[in-house]
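Sample A.
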Amino acid sequence: MEYPSDFPPESRSRVAAERLRAGKAFDEARQHAPYRAYGSTVHLEAELRKYILRQFAVFASEACKLGCQGVWSVERVEEAALEFLRLCTIEARSSKGFDRLGRAFGRDWIGNWGDIQSTVMREFERSDEWRQFQEELLHVAERQRMRASDAGGTVRQEIKDVPRDSAPSKSAGPWSEVEGVAARELPVSLAAANKPDRRAAVEAFLGQATSC
């Protein structure tokens, strides 16, 4: 089975283990399936869907864990799960899609473009495994929504907490900087002058500095 490149090894092991268990269960069901002269029965088709869905349920659960951890987006989780279901269906009809006399069934489960036929997909969507996947996917979406909301709130709070006087005043221009420097260099008597006379004192001081 082909997995996404970033699907963890331990998750692959869990899916592989379930595939082996499901394969064993299917082989036993096929061996005890009622004989039909004209091919497989509805019973065997249902057993093959179980074989597929058991693996799908484990893969989907592992993918949802990655979503809850923030490793995969909810869109990536859904996309990977559906692709796994498609590939698993292709593999199942090839490796398990025959009765105990070797007569094939399930060959029409995959369309000409490699997609699952709508009739087969509807059967999958009626299963408990599919409903469980939808519940887990919803949980992933809610977790990621809350995480995004919390992150946005943190950013807004950090902006709110910035001291107002830490940012440069928009009204402060070049003259304010010059005035500050000049005031530090003025004699004490000039620096102590009242505010209306201070600008004149600064200009006088700068005029003297220029003439020097």
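Sample B.
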Amino acid sequence: MQAVLVGEHGGPEVLRLADIPRPEPGPRQLLVRVAYAGVNFIDVYQRSGLYPTEVPFTPGVEGAGVVEALGEGVVAPELGAAVAWTSSIGSYAEYIVLPADKVVEIPAGIGLDVAAAAALQGMTAHYLVTDTYPLSADDVCLVHAGAGGVGHLLIQMAKMRGATVFATAGGADKVRMAQDMGADHVIDYRAGDFKDAVEGIAGKHPLSVVYDGVGRATFDRGLDLLRRRGTMVTFGNASGPPDAVDPLRLMRAGSVYVTRPTLFDYVAERADLERRAAELFGWIAAGALKVHIGVRLPLTEASQAHRDLEARATTGKVILEI
């Protein structure tokens, strides 16, 4: 089969297409024919070495496809079932072997492309607004990169919970997209300082929570916008990891909280994975949640997909068609 391999850590150029043996499922595993792989910043972090990953490896922790073979002891899902996954590396390939308890079946009416585009980033947005900081109608939040893969879903889910939503985006097209997703106030960070813009609308320290997937470029200014006992949720490093924070600064800022969550701790138990996936796919099927696929590229252009993502030149989700 064909697969993308990372033989050494580095830039997008280290992603190379190769012919490798097709894997076979072991006990409690599935062989899945991959239809689409989601491209995420975690793939970039693993490729670059920011998240240490032993080489060689095939990147991609998210995808959707069809079950082609069952390992010993697997009774569900059945052969031919459409499934999605978020927690197993190796999705930039024609086939992948997955633990049967780490996949979810895709409801009828949802395409494999949409499922691959929504699984990781959709469940990320889900846990952020329901668990990491459970939003309510009394809350005011800030979503950075509001036109991005997580951001456009996070805005919609925050509005479902009744919160007032500020969002940042870069450029007129991305601003319009964040507005279309339902954000109450969208700030073009290219046109001025987002902290000044938020305070100009809502006053000093107005935010209950900041959802920050950007990292170093936005972390400090976002922390200064929090109300007393507010929460900074830093869940990504698109601009690089934030600098270390002196705990005394958190006290001086009003006893604020900082957390660095990851989806994999929020779907570690099968019941949590099923619950989040069911709500996510239910909203999509009902038309309550829009999934925007901004870039579709063939597997042969995985390097370009990473370049586009790192340059923050995309809107919505980037997927690879296998």
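B remarks: The CA atoms of residues 229 and 256 lie 4 Å apart. The chain is about 30% helix and 25% strand.
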